[in-house]
């Protein structure tokens, strides 16, 4: 019986992803791929709403499209399968080698679906809304902190939808839009606020996370050689770090997906900005600079948040100020230099019952608020 339950749990993400892929392939047969403007204008139609929901999975990288979302999940599934089988080509062990990826993915997806059930009506306003935030925040962090199992998985999803998503909605609609701030500031600030409240609740009511399947101790691996190959692999893995995957195969699926989406319909991914190539170039440069600059920290700590500018500072700068080389290079350099150590400084001061990802998202908010205006002063930045 135990073997049957284990097998069901391991195959569950693949079944979910397969179902999503089947529905989207059927959708493709119905007509040409819509651009972002058409998608946003037809969210009252079931097909467009489905595309929006699936696109939320790749929203954290600012790609907002169903194809990179499916690429990310298929790559992550392959990485998890390779980890279970012990294949060397699995890359960096997905979800930090805990073996919790199926629970993590399930909780994140449930949080996303619940968020749409509770807050999807906000999309009727005609303005962009942060419906994606539960997929890349509290649910996954709770699984990693307290372990797997249905109690933690479901409660993480519920708290994500009930606390994180409305906090982000408030920040975006009553702070970012009125003040003209990049919406990522509201997204990550809301994640930090909602998650802090959730972790306080878990401490006050431990039954919420009781009997969680404790995170597995990662297998002892030989100390990596932090050379050229490791550096390039680490840069690639940073692209899937925000949803707590941190794996090259998952990132490769994400990147191949967004490039394919751009070829199919240039006006569809990245909010129809036509800046996909500029985004990817800036994100890769920011990670490369960060990994090289903070290589010693990677060696001594085993992990360092060099992914932060990929999902905050660089895309906010490019989408706000344009894709000139001055904007790309300046945002990548400043983000790589400032954001990772700031995140570590904040995380080290958090209480032990809170996941350190809160420090990462706070560093994203501060870094974006400080760096994007500075980059805007440079020649080549859009007014």
UniProtKB/TrEMBL annotation:
Record field: transmembrane: 12-33, 67-84, 96-119, 131-150, 157-175, 181-202, 249-269, 275-294, 306-322, 328-346, 358-378
Keywords annotated in UniProt: Membrane, Transmembrane, Transmembrane helix
Keyword Ubl conjugation recorded: no
Protein name (record): Integral membrane protein
């Amino acid at each position: 019986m135990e073997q049957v339950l284990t097998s069901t749990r391991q195959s569950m993400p693949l079944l979910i992803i397969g179902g999503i892929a089947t529905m989207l392939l059927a959708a493709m047969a119905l007509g040409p791929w819509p651009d972002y403007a058409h998608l946003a204008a037809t969210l009252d139609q079931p097909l467009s709403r489905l595309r929006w929901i699936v696109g939320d999975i790749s929203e954290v990288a600012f790609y907002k499209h169903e194809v990179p979302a499916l690429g990310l999940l298929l790559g992550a599934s392959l990485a998890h399968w390779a980890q279970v089988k012990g294949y060397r080509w699995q890359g960096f062990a997905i979800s930090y080698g805990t073996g919790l990826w199926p629970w993590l993915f399930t909780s994140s997806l449930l949080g996303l679906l619940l968020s749409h059930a509770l807050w999807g009506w906000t999309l009727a306003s005609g303005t962009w809304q942060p419906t994606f935030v539960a997929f890349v925040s509290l649910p996954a962090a709770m699984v990693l902190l307290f372990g797997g199992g249905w109690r933690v998985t479901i409660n993480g999803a519920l708290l994500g939808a009930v606390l994180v998503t409305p906090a982000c909605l408030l920040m975006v609609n009553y702070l970012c839009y009125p003040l003209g701030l990049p919406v990522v500031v509201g997204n990550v600030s809301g994640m930090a606020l909602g998650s802090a409240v959730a972790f306080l609740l878990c401490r006050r009511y431990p039954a919420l996370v009781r009997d969680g399947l404790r995170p597995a101790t990662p297998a002892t691996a030989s100390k990596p050689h932090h050379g050229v190959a490791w550096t390039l692999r680490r840069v690639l893995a940073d692209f899937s770090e925000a949803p707590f995957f941190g794996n090259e195969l998952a990132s490769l699926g994400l990147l191949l997906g967004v490039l394919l989406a751009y070829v199919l319909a240039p006006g569809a991914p990245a909010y129809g900005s036509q800046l996909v190539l500029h985004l990817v170039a800036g994100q890769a440069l920011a990670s490369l600079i960060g990994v090289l600059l903070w290589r010693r920290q990677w060696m001594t700590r085993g992990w360092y948040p060099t992914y932060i500018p990929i999902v905050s500072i660089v895309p906010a700068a490019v989408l706000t100020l344009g894709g000139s080389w001055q904007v790309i290079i300046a945002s990548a350099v400043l983000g790589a230099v400032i954001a990772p150590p700031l995140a570590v400084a904040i995380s080290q001061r958090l209480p032990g019952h809170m996941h350190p990802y809160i420090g990462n998202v706070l560093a994203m908010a501060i870094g974006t608020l400080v760096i994007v205006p500075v980059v805007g002063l440079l020649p080549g930045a859009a007014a």
